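Severity: low
Component: inverse-folding endpoint
Summary: output formatting inconsistent between runs
Steps to reproduce: submit the following structure tokens with default settings.
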């Protein structure tokens, strides 16, 4: 269960990128290396999820159904 969804966090980050008030607490939080590393990871993870959704149309779950008894 997500407390805050990926889309909400990425939306927050996108809004912060356009702001010029970097001296406030939110601006300082946004500029922290840990925050930027997390956002980068989240964007990559979100992109991977999009790729997984579009490439899994064959109905296969990767398991083998062969009867080799």
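Observed output (run 2 of 3):
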């Amino acid at each position: 269960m997500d407390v805050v969804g990926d889309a909400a966090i990425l939306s927050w980050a996108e809004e912060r990128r356009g702001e010029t008030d970097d001296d406030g607490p939110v601006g300082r939080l946004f500029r922290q290396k840990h925050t930027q590393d997390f956002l980068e990871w989240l964007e990559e993870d979100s992109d991977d999820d999009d790729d997984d959704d579009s490439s899994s149309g064959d109905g296969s779950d990767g398991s083998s159904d062969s009867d080799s008894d």
